[in-house]
Structures are given as structure tokens and as C-alpha cells.
Amino acid sequence: xxxxRNTVLGAWMAEHGxxxxxxxxxxxxxxxxxxGRPGGLDGSxxxxxxxxxxxxPKSATRKALEDVTGLPAVALGFVPRGRSSSVxxxxxxxxxxxxxxxxxxxxxxxxxxxxxxxGATSPRRVGMSDVDRLQKRFAEIIASDHRHxxxxxxxxxxxxxxxxxxxxxxxGSASQRVRGSLYASAAAFRSSAMWAAIDGRRYEDAKVHMRxxxxxxxxxxxxxIKFRIWSHAGAMYRHMGRPAEAFAANDVARNxxxxxxxxxxxxxxxxxxxxxxxxxxxxxxxxxxLDQAQDAMLRADPADHRPVWMLAFYDQAELDSLALSxxxxxxxxxxxxxxxxxxxxxxxxxxxxxxTITTTRLAHxxxxxxxxxxxxxxxxxxPADAATRHARVTRMLQEFGAALRATSPGSAxxxxxxxxxxxxxxxx
Length: 428
Fold this sequence. Notes:
Blueprint: H1 7-16, H2 20-35, H3 43-51, H4 59-69, H5 96-116, H6 128-147, H7 152-167, H8 176-199, H9 203-220, H10 223-239, H11 243-254, H12 258-261, H13 263-279, H14 283-299, H15 308-313, H16 316-330, H17 333-346, H18 352-368, H19 372-379, H20 384-389, H21 391-407, H22 412-427
Helix pairs in contact: 2-3, 2-4, 6-7, 6-8, 7-8, 8-9, 8-10, 9-10, 10-11, 10-13, 11-13, 13-14, 13-16, 14-16, 16-17, 16-18, 17-18, 18-19, 18-21
């Protein structure tokens, strides 16, 4: 007689949005937390469970599955080996479909009876729909960051949404998958708060967000958000002029298994490594890291699934932006200008903050090559709100003005720049 399918497990997976592969990944992560070693399940393992070919998984696997689902294995349709003789085996002629309908119906009836009992409560079930709602809010934060960048309001909204994600942990029952996703969402919001503080040069606040984000990311087990946090930390220390700590933080991101699985993450880690080498005045290291970043980007499959924050910003334009930063720091101004023009030509329309920063850096590269007229034409393209409200851009423009006055004192070019800068302040 054919082995009965485990329709109870299949129904649970459909209800909670799991495919065979995603459930295998979740159980593998739970196994690693339990045993310290990664699990070896894949989609075919779960299909064996659903088909009834495996009726009673190994003990550690069962415990991991129970951690993921919040249910005992028997409630998921699994049948223990060596059943007690006091539990009668089904007759040979019994219809397997009838047996399963009876089992499922019995579970449903018991749940209904418990819900109807006097004094019984019905706690809220937190599910993936709650996570999806948070992800939409996260996409809004990402969009705000690309439009404005560095603003205190973005930092505060992101931090508040991180707290909202954590509050959902106590709002009701949830599967292990949902809880992990809530921690990942909270970590993602904290990392956005961290980046807004970095971009606004509020470094002490950024460190507070960083520590919180790192803790949440560890609880989530999500390597993509771990990468984002440590990569941001490397950028923070680079902006602070502390290259040794920048290398150490960026190395944590680059050494995650994720970078061996996805060349695009490897490319981003290497591109940011190149920018740190530039800040450390290491020409050979800069060139090597940026070349490797370009090679890795060319190997990446654009169709691979990646998180929204990665898809929203990392592409050839961002790689050129990091190369621009590196060569500007090295004093290689012609190469910096080359990467600036490449970046500006490839930037997507929503990358407003990146366009502003790149334009300001291009002005610096042109001025350093003895072309003050071209430089101020470029610098005057910076929007007034960015010139006066974005801390990094404001500082770079102040440095640009000081360099212009030092190289062309009393010239008409300086006068033109001074008058234009005054209009920015009046507009703001």
C-alpha cells in the first residue's frame, strides 16, 4: 500500500507561506542554533516529508522543526516510530484520505473547543503579513534616504520603526520564521538609522544605532543585514579618518559566507575596501580592490534574489562613486574625474543624494587640476537644500570654497562663487 502523504504539514506550509526550500533553510538555521553545526536539509528533504517517505525525522531535526513552527511534530502530521500497542493501528482497508481528514478535523475541533471554553483568550497571531507591512515601511525609509540623506528626521523614523518591529515580538504568538524576520526588520531599520547618522556626521549617535543593530542582526540570523551593518561600520570609520578600524569592520562583512555565495555582495565589500585603501593612501591596495570589485560585479547574476536596500543602490554607478572617493583621497584627480563622470552618467533618477555628493566631489577634482571656472560651474549645480542641510555636502562645499580662495585669491571666479553661496543661504 502507498505511504500516506503528510497533508497536515503541506497545509501548514501553505498557510505560513513556506516553500520546500525556504522551510529547509529555516530548519537548517534552527539546527545550527541547536547543535552549532549547519543543517543539511534541502527542498527534496521537505518534499520527502510531505510525500510521507519520511514519517518521523531524526530527533534534532524534529526539535528544529518544532522551534520553527511552534508545534509538536505529531501536530504536523508526523507519525512516531514504534507506536504503543495501546494505540490501534488503522485497519488494512481504511481509506488513508479518510484517516487524514479525521486527524485534521480532530485537531481543528480541539482548537475550536479550546477557543470556545469559558475564560479562554484568543491571542493575536503575528504572521508574515506583519513582516510584509514593515518591509513596505523599510522601502519608504530607503527611498527617503536616497532623496535627502543624513537628515535627523530619517534617523528618528527608522529608529521608531525598529522599536515597532520589536514590539510585535510581544504582540502575540508567532513561528520561529516570523520572529527571525521581525528581528531582521528591526535590525534593518536600526542600520538605516545608523546610516542616516553617519551621513549627517552624527558619529556618536551612529555608534549607538550600530551596537543595537548588531545585536538584533545576530538574533535574526540574516546574513544580508549583518553584511549591511558591518559594511556601514567600515564606511563610518573611513569618514571619521580611522582606516584601521574601517578595515576591521569591513573585513567582518567581507568574510561572511554570503559574499562567497553572491558576487554582488563580494563586489560591494571590495569596492568599499578600495575606498578605505584610498583614505589610507595605499595606491596599490586601492587599485587591486577596485579591480576585484569590478570583476565580481561582472560575475553577479542580476536575476538573483537580493534585499531591497541592495537593489536600490548598488550598481556600476555606486562602484564608480566609491572609486571616485578613493582616487580623490589619493590625490589622483584625473582618475577621480573620470569615475565622477561615469557615475553621473549611470546614476538612476531616484539617487538624488548620490548625485549631489558626486557632483561636489567632481568640483573638487576639477579645481585640483587647475580648472576653477569648470569647477564652480559644476559646484553651482548642487541644489540649495543639499548645500545647506546635508552635513557632508555642506562641509565639502565649505572646503571647496576655501580651496578656491587659496588658489585664486581676489579673482572674479571667487567673487562669483561667493555670491552664489550667499543665494543658497538666502534660499534655505
